[in-house]
Amino acid sequence: MSNTKFGDVNDSAKKCPVMHGGLTATGTTVMDWWPEALNLDILHQHDTKTNPMEDSFDYREEVKKLDFQALKNDLTDFMTNSQPWWPADWGHYGGLMIRMSWHAAGTYRIADGRGGASTGNLRFAPLNSWPDNVNLDKARRLLWPIKKKYGNKLSWADLFVLAGTIAYESMGLKTFGFSFGREDIWHPERDVYWGAEKAWLAPSDERYEDVESPETMENPLAAVQMGLIYVNPEGVNGKSDPLKTAAHVRETFARMAMNDEETVALAAGGHTVGKCHGNGSAEALGPAPEAASIEEAGLGWMNHERRSIGRDTVSSGIEGAWTTNPTQWDNGYFHLLLNYDWELKKSPAGAEQWEPINIKEEDKPVDVEDSSKRYNSIMTDADMAMKMDPEYRKISEKFYNDHAYFSEVFARAWFKLTHRDLGPKVRYIGPDVPEETLIWQDPVPEGSMSYDIDALKSKISDSGLSIGDMVATAWDSARTFRGSDLRGGANGARIRLAPQKDWEGNEPERLNKVLAVLIPLADEAGASLADTIVLAGNVGIEKGIAAAGFNVAVPFSPGRGDATDDMTDAESFEPLEPIADGYRNYLQKDYAVKPEELMLDKTQLLGLTAKEMTALIGGMRMLGTNYGGSKHGVFTKNVGALTTDFFEILTDMNYTWKPTGKNSYAIVDRASGDEVFSATRFDLVFGSNSILRAYAEFYAQDDSKEKFVKDFVAAWTKVMNADRFDLSC
Predict the structure, then answer these.
(1) Is the alpha carbon torsion for 336, 255, 421, 189 positive or negative?
(2) Residue 436 CA to its chain's centroid (Å)
């Protein structure tokens, strides 16, 4: 007889017709047995199998069929159409919609370009269940009738941002503009690193070398704690200290590409409307959406013990409105912040919040349900930072004395916040796209398409540049591309401008020698330098293909332009500097993260698959593109020929590998004991990881030589054209 309530576990499992655990749940997986194994899942997310659309579906074309004005009218009407199941504060959903838009876009960070609103990821874990996103699930459900009406012509990603923008317009702000074109994903973005903490809202100390020095926050993170968008509204680690909070706000917003003026504008503009919710106990709230029971229908934070809507809603735990008129775009935020003294108090939920001393009755906001009742306004620690930090104070006073200027700065900052990860202006869609081109959009002028490509190729071929130099320079120019926010790439030839021309990974001395040859050739041909750099890379590859005994052309699409210094926000390009590049066997220094993990991160940002990565690495080793001309991974006696030698040596059991340093290895002939080649972890992972070895063995086969060449060319062309939005927009 079993001593368990429901019988023997093994017996129960035998009777159940489905597998349990890793195959049907999100808990333990089979790979958890080997936690140090390289996880390639980052390269294979958002597979077509997750997408319910037909292969021919193109959202960027479909959204152009949208009745834009009808949608805007519907959203404007929606703002004041309060629903009983989740009533609007003061009869206006503006504050809730703005918070939703902000929290969708506010995860963006400049370090790796990840986060942001452009994928609609707020629908999925972990973001849909972050502590900072309490009750935003209600905002999405309120919008469902509109999404249902417009269907596939309107993505959730676009709707999230548009709802907040229309909310501001409906409350009196003249917005700067809006663009459609964000395409939904259908699976969580598991490639985004949100921090190493194992608990929500773990102390900030866990992601800082020294929490007293905000700049020591772990890269690429931008929020101060796991589960927050920016900073803790109650202060650093929940302890009020506005000046300390100001330092953290400044660092956090800088990591989200905002300067001091934009930061003050966003803080004030975001808190000019809406309110915080903490009129009750957070203990009464149920689990977040991802942990809620099935009968909650995908909603989270449900309270079945109390009313928990309207004035009794609990979200952040702080309770109250910032301004006297929370559904109007006005200057009330600065009026209250600067003209009153403030003291720390506790909200009904027990949160620390600032309240004004001796506030006039007419300055108090009214209750969200009963206009005959008035309450103190509130400020968070971050709001008080706008008053107490000397630089923020100057900006706040300027905004207070010039509401029109404040409104303009905020409108532009809101546009930047919600569009930063949408890519360059050529990708913008819709009637409200601003005519002005902004420097953070990384503008690039149109390039010529009328020059003689074959003649330019011939001159490049005869220039005396080596295959390695031509291919490496083209790669360095293009490898800055990030699919996360669509920045970087070869278009613009910014490799010749600051800061890229001086990056260590670009080998400035070698780069200058190559550019000194290519610039006159480009000028003589009437081509852009950007085109010429890419074309030179293609020339080098075609020479390598011929040396391998094949005749395969490398596709080329002219039309790239050359950006200027005036078009380049040099400071914002600093985070694109490569600290490692497995493709060129470059590692700036030893990091806590393994080199091969850094290679996967770069590969994912480039939009490449594991197969494409394998082909490119093997080919670039053979073409002699290593940083500094090193011989690591150059497993051939025929450098410059695009052969499969890399894979053949890597999979040959006549050789053994011996460590010679932290990231260096000797390839030793088993029979003679002689060292015949050297390698790094970037190289050897293709022979040690079971998945990557499968690709390496595929290319090492005797019948894969031409297949390898064609795969290399396809992957190369994909990288060179990654930023050619003019070819598809």
Answers:
(1) negative
(2) 24
Q: Given this model, what pLDDT does residue 44 score?
A: 86
2: pLDDT strictly greater than 50: no
**What is the mean predicted confidence (pLDDT) over 249-273?**
98
State the Cα angle at 611 between 605 and 612, rounded to 5°: 50
Q: Which pLDDT score, from 0 to 100, does residue 36 have? A: 86
Helix, strand or coil, per DSSP, at residue 50: helix
Measured from the Cβ of residue 348, the count of other Cβ atoms closer than 10 Å reads 15
Which residues, at least 6 apart from 257, have a Cβ–Cβ distance to it below 8 Å? 108, 110, 416, 420, 440, 572
Sheet holding 664-669, edge to edge: 655-661, 664-669, 675-679
Place of tokens 């091969």: 596
Q: What is the pLDDT of residue 12?
A: 42
**Residues carrying an active site annotation:** 103
Residue 13's pLDDT band (boundaries 50, 70, 90)?
very low
Rounded to the nearest 10 degrees, what angle do helices 595-605 and 610-622 cross at?
110
**621-638 residue pLDDT tens:** 999 999 999 999 999 999
Cα-Cα-Cα-Cα torsion 687, 688, 692, 695, nearest 10 degrees, comes to 40
| Distance between CA atoms of residues 48 and 31, nearest Å | 23
Distance of alpha carbon 27 from alpha carbon 25, whole angstroms: 6
Structure-token pair, residue 290: 């991802």
Q: Which two tokens stand for residue 366?
A: 């009214």
Q: How far is CA 619 from CA 240, 471, 606, 644, 700, in A?
A: 56, 11, 17, 8, 12
The span from the CA of 105 to the CA of 364, in Å, is: 31
Cis peptide before 499 (omega within 30 of 0): yes
pLDDT score of 25 = 53
Phi, psi of 656 (to 5 degrees): -125, 160
Peptide bond before residue 126 is cis, with ω within 30 degrees of 0:
yes
**Residue in 474, 456, 479, 489 with CA at minimum distance from that of residue 533:** 474
What whole-number distance in Å separates Cα of residue 163 and Cα of residue 495? Answer: 39
pLDDT in tens, 595-625: 999 999 999 999 999 999 999 999 999 999 9
Q: Among 243-252, 432-441, 695-704, 719-728, which is the least confidently predicted range?
A: 719-728
Helix (H/G/I), strand (E/B), else coil: 474: helix
User: Coil, helix or strand for 489?
Assistant: coil
Q: CA-CA distance, 566 to 596, in Å (whole number)?
A: 37
Q: How many residues make up the chain in this entry?
A: 729
Burial-class residue 147 by CB neighbours within 10 Å (0-12, 13-18, 19+).
middle
Q: What are phi and psi of 629, to 5 degrees?
A: 70, 20
Phi, psi of 236 (to 5 degrees): -60, 125
Which pLDDT tens digit goes with each residue over 188-214?
887 799 999 999 999 999 999 999 999
What pLDDT, in 10s, does the model give residues 629-684?
999 999 999 999 999 999 999 999 999 999 999 999 999 999 999 999 999 999 99
Query: Which residues lie across from 83 on neighbouring strands?
Result: 86
Structure tokens at 576: 């694109």
- For 50-98, the pLDDT digits (tens) are 899 999 999 999 999 999 999 999 999 999 999 999 999 999 999 999 9
**207, 221 Cβ separation under 8 angstroms:** yes
586's CB contacts (< 8 A; 6+ apart) are: 505, 578, 580, 626, 627
User: CA–CA separation, 408 vs 397, rounded Å?
Assistant: 15
Tokens of 352: 């620390």
Distances (CA, A) of 288 to 84, 98, 119, 284, 622: 22, 21, 21, 12, 52
